């Protein structure tokens, strides 16, 4: 029987995941959709023949919901995830798991008290083929011990509602998660440098920003976040080791030669860049649930770690200082969980 999924939040990514669960992933059925915008929930639900419960609480309690997908705004995630754990239902939560470390720890404690993993966080880069290849090379030891990582996260533009804090909370949070996973290491300090701002931004915004992270093993990471780069959606990651380096491949694109020029297309949004990763992420989630297994993807602990580092990075930019991340020790419950 298909896993019956209830979706809380029918905005941009909620609708995309509803489509994915309905058209791309086998073994899943979206049975309920809710949103504080009732009309939006109604339209999204009607497209897949789902019901519209009044709110997240009603949806989580419903008999026709086996698993919950949280795609509402970040500050609302903790409440829905805690309700799902209390109901003993698996819950996939888009990033961030919660906006404060305290709320993330409440989720971690509730899950440990339940005794079994229920939570997966939507850090889809761990499912990207290029990042998986990068990890294989690093883990194989071919480039020796990693020493330095150079990253760039560029968006062509962002809406006016995007704030300078979001460069860490919304954008860099992907690198924060994927680098912890790639290097099997923790980020212990963070610093932000703000170069000359681009003129092609809203006045309130510090853009670009350079974030500097240090890991427990002493690896240094520089990350350029540039969300009004104009030219495309561009994700770069290069790890330098003692004996070589490994670089994230650009997405495959045909090379065109014409009029004395050779060109390849650059993608323009994250939807296209990570489409396959999102598909794999949900396929693996539904496969685990169908088998009655715990989810294998990024865990509540990974969600906690990412929130600690992204919040510290906001504090680092605001204060102009190097900020320690002050992370709790990882409980044994999560020692082998969330490694994908
Ligand atoms: N993994 C990724 O790359 C990725 C990409 C985009 C967004 N996201 C995350 O997904 C989440 C949603 O982002 P979005 O771009 O779809 O935003 P959005 O604003 O388009 O959609 C959010 C929807 O949630 C609804 N909502 C808010 N609070 C609610 C509540 N308590 N109960 C029910 N509905 C509620 C809103 O009315 C809205 O329709 C965010 O946390 C965002 O960071 C992740
Ligand atoms: O919410 C989006 C999304 O997470 C994208 O993957 C990221 O590139 C954007 O910067 C962010 O605003």
Automatic annotation (TrEMBL):
Gene3D superfamilies according to UniProt: Dihydrodipicolinate Reductase, domain 2, NAD(P)-binding Rossmann-like Domain
Domain of life: Bacteria
Reactions catalysed according to its record: myo-inositol + NAD(+) = scyllo-inosose + NADH + H(+)
Annotated Gfo/Idh/MocA-like oxidoreductase C-terminal domain residues: 135-323
One example GO MF annotation: inositol 2-dehydrogenase (NAD+) activity
Domain named Gfo/Idh/MocA-like oxidoreductase N-terminal: residues: 3-123
Biological process per Gene Ontology, one example term: inositol catabolic process
Keywords associated with the record: NAD, Oxidoreductase
Oligomer status and interactors: Homotetramer.
Descriptive protein name: Inositol 2-dehydrogenase
Organism annotation: Streptomyces ferrugineus
Top-level taxonomy: Bacteria, Bacillati, Actinomycetota, Actinomycetes, Kitasatosporales
Gene that produces this protein: iolG
């Amino acid at each position: 029987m298909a896993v019956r999924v209830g979706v809380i939040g029918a905005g941009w990514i909620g609708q995309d995941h509803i489509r994915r669960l309905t058209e791309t992933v086998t073994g899943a059925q979206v049975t309920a959709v809710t949103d504080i915008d009732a009309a939006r929930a109604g339209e999204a639900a009607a497209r897949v023949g789902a019901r519209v419960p009044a709110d997240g609480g009603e949806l989580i309690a419903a008999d026709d919901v086996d698993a919950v997908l949280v795609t509402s705004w970040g500050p609302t995630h903790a409440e829905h995830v805690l309700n799902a754990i209390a109901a003993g239902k698996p819950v996939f939560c888009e990033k961030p798991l919660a906006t404060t470390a305290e709320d993330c720890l409440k989720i971690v404690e509730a899950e440990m008290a339940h005794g079994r993993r229920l939570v997966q966080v939507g850090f889809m880069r761990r499912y990207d083929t290029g990042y998986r290849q990068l990890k294989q090379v690093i883990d194989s030891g071919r480039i020796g011990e990693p020493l330095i990582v150079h990253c760039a996260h560029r968006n062509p533009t962002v809406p006016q509602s995007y704030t300078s804090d979001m460069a860490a909370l919304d954008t860099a949070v992907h690198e924060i998660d994927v680098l912890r996973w790639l290097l099997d290491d923790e980020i212990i300090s963070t610093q932000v440098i703000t170069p000359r701002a681009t003129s092609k931004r809203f006045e309130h915004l510090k853009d670009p920003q350079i974030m500097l992270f240090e890991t427990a093993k002493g690896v240094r990471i520089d990350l350029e976040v540039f969300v009004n780069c104009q030219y495309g959606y561009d994700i770069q990651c290069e790890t330098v080791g003692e004996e070589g380096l490994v670089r994230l491949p650009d997405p495959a694109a045909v090379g065109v030669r014409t009029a004395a020029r050779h060109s390849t297309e650059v993608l323009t949004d994250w939807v296209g860049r990570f489409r396959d990763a999102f598909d794999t992420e949900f396929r693996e989630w539904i496969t685990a649930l169908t088998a009655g297994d715990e989810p294998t993807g990024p865990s509540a602990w990974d969600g906690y770690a990412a929130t600690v580092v992204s919040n510290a990075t906001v504090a680092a930019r605001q204060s102009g200082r190097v900020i320690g991340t002050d992370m709790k020790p990882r409980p044994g419950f999560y020692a082998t969980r969330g490694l994908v």
